[in-house]
Each structure stands twice: as structure tokens, then as C-alpha cells.
Amino acid sequence: MDIFSIVDKIKEFFLFAKDFLISLPWPEIILILKLILIIISIFLFIGIIFIIFGLRVIYRIKRVLALVTIPRYLPKKKLTKKWSRIEKRLGLGQEAELKLAVIEADKFFDDILKRIGYFGKDMGERLKKINPGQMANINDIWSAHKIRNNIVHDVDYKLNSVDAERAIRAYKKALEELEVI
Questions:
Q1: Are 67 and 116 spatial neighbours (Cβ–Cβ below 8 Å)?
Q2: Is the domain of 48 the same as that of 86?
Q3: E strands along the chain, which residues?
Q4: For residue 110, what are the contacts with CB-CB under 8 A and spacing of at least 6?
């Protein structure tokens, strides 16, 4: 076999391949490929959505479990004793003692939030991470924290016993919900 016959065979093969490719029903093939790619894209999009929502669900479950399980490791007797001192201040009824009781209750609750895994530069940031599904009286806690901020930042702020008791009750309810006291 000489080189010219090899070249002719190669030429024949390419001509046959060209004729074969030209004779294919390309519009139908492209349509089928488009449909297959669209179906694959839909499945991938649905998969991405499931992953995103799955991660959100896992994050929420993790947060709920953190609220349920971590407080059990806190020294409950010591914390209950500290809380009873705050309530004694509240019982004295003097404005200065009421203010101290609210400030101490706020600090106490903030320390608990840090211990159970809520992070942030201040209590406001930690409270923003809690939703009503995690803590029933989160709005009351916000109100109590605002009272505390008024006490600390406004020297002329007058605290009455009703507001102080409401704030302390809000903190106590949240701490009981967390099974801290």
C-alpha cells in the first residue's frame, strides 16, 4: 500500500463522516439536548433550594437544641442564689435599689446568653439573634433592656416600682424558660 492510497482512504473517511453528519436531523437532536439540559438545570436548581433550606433548618434545630441542652450545664444553685439577691433588691422598693436590680438582672441575663452561645459585641446584638420561636417573651426582654439602657444612659431617669417589677419579671420568665433558675 502506498501513501496515495492511504491519503485516499483518509479522504474517503472524512467525506463519509461529513455526509453522515450532514444527514443527521440536527433540529431534533438540538431540541432533545435542550430538553435534557433544561431538565438537568431544574433538578440542580431544586437541589440548591433544598440545600439552602436544609441548612436553615439545621441551623434552627441547632439553635433550639442549644437553648434546651446547654443551660443544664450551668451551676443552677449558684445562679438561683444570685437571682434571689436581685429579687431582694427589688423588694426593698427604693429607687436606687430598683435601678440596681434591673441593671443586675440585665447583666445576669446577658451572661447567660453568652454562656449558651449567643455572640455579639453587646446584648442588643445577642437579642437580635433570638426569635420569638426560641424565646416566648423576647419583646418583653427588649422592653426590659431598654429600661436598663435608660437607667444607665439618662441620669435623670425616674424608675418606678411597676416598671422595675415588669422588667425583672420579663428576665425571670426568660430564665425559667431556659431552665436556668
A1: yes
A2: no
A3: none
A4: 123, 126
Give me the domain span that covers residue 7: 3-70
In the numeric block, the cell 431556659 is attached to 178
Domain boundary among 70, 87, 118: 70
CB atoms near residue 104 (< 10 Å)? 19
Q: Which of 70, 99, 116 is the last residue of a domain?
A: 70
pLDDT per position as a tens digit, 124-161 = 999 998 888 888 899 999 999 999 999 999 989 999 99
Residue 181, classified by CB atoms within 10 Å of its CB into exposed (0-12), middle (13-18) or buried (19+), is buried
160 contact partners, CB below 8 Å, separation of at least 6? 98
Which pLDDT band, with edges at 50, 70 and 90, does 77 fall under?
confident
